[in-house]
Design a protein that fits this description.
- There is one protein chain.
- The protein is an alpha+beta fold.
- 51% of the residues lie in helices and 19% in strands.
- The longest helix has 36 residues.
């Protein structure tokens, strides 16, 4: 095969996945538009969501925002119009569709329902993580009136040495602002206390403790990764059941949601397996390479639970 022919084959091979993705995005968009014409907004919006994930475009975002608006998902509509506005300005859109987005945002703003989540009145525990509908809130978002779609929402708070706190809140009414205060949080008497060990002679002692702590954390990460792997497989299987997705991977709104959940769980599983392997290897290395020479400076190590925005695990501290 001549060099020019070989180059052409490589170009075609590289372009094929992109063309397939574009075709899938177009197909989902057309399905969403057809559902919109039938006023089936709850079914149309997931089609536009998936289309925009594959191939985000200004026009597609405006269609999605309009679908959200018609489906009374006002906060989602407002945020999507804002994304369309930014994309239009970034791309210097000649059609000036940022003006269209701005017009809709101005009309929506007085009607947005908002939820204010306040920290516990008796003080914010160290490591407090707050989630709304499973999404972790930034710490600086506490106390702010944040637009949410009208309806039921679930607020959850977790912190080391405290029991999980969960509250359902109904946010309804145009322009309404609902305030929810977290707590009171209940102490968890069953929580494992910090493990503190002191040694005054062996400099390798702290390395051994740290190695064990890292090894345990690595094994926990691998175990959680396995759970996410099972969740991904379960979601994928569910998407194929009851005709939600066919052999050509064409899915209805339920199937698309399950496929999206499966992809997220699979990604989390992969990340946790990689991180767990790295941490486990680090623990083994620390344990094996611990120094043998004695010295007089005391060494100590402490292992404590660690909880933060989007992570859970163990923290090892000490003087080596």
């Amino acid at each position: 095969m001549r060099a020019s022919q070989f180059s052409m084959v490589l170009v075609l091979m590289a372009a094929s996945p992109a063309l397939a993705q574009q075709s899938q995005a177009d197909k989902l968009f057309e399905e969403g538009a057809a559902l919109m014409k039938q006023n089936k907004y709850a079914e149309a919006c997931p089609k536009f969501e998936q289309s925009n994930k594959i191939d985000p475009e200004i026009g597609g975002m405006l269609w999605l925002a309009d679908c959200y608006e018609r489906n009374n998902q006002t906060a989602s509509a407002y945020a999507t119009y804002k994304d369309a506005e930014k994309m239009s300005l970034d791309k210097k859109d000649k059609q000036q569709r940022d003006k269209v987005a701005q017009k809709h945002m101005a009309a929506l703003e007085p009607h947005l329902a908002k939820l204010t989540v306040l920290p516990p009145q008796d003080g914010r525990p160290t490591g407090l993580a707050v989630m709304r509908d499973g999404e972790v809130l930034a710490s600086d978002a506490l106390g702010l009136a944040v637009p949410v779609d009208p309806g039921q929402h679930v607020v959850t708070a977790i912190a080391p040495h405290y029991k999980k706190w969960t509250q359902n809140v109904d946010v309804t009414g145009e322009g309404a602002t609902v305030t929810l205060t977290i707590g009171p949080l209940e102490k968890d008497a069953t929580a494992a206390p910090p493990v503190v060990v002191v040694d005054n002679g062996d400099p390798g002692f702290a390395y051994h403790v740290s190695g064990i702590a890292l090894g345990v954390a690595g094994l926990v990460s691998l175990g959680v990764g396995s759970v996410f792997g099972l969740v991904a497989a379960s979601k994928l299987s569910a998407s194929n059941a009851n005709g939600h997705c066919d052999a050509a991977d064409t899915c209805d709104s339920v199937g698309l949601g399950l496929r999206s959940d499966a992809e997220g769980a699979a990604l989390a599983s992969t990340i946790l397996f990689i991180a767990g392997g790295v941490v486990l290897a680090a623990g083994i290395t620390a344990f094996v390479l611990a120094p043998k020479k004695k010295h007089t400076e005391p060494t100590f190590a402490a292992i404590t639970p660690a909880v933060g925005n989007g992570f859970y695990g163990l923290a090892a501290t000490g003087r080596f």
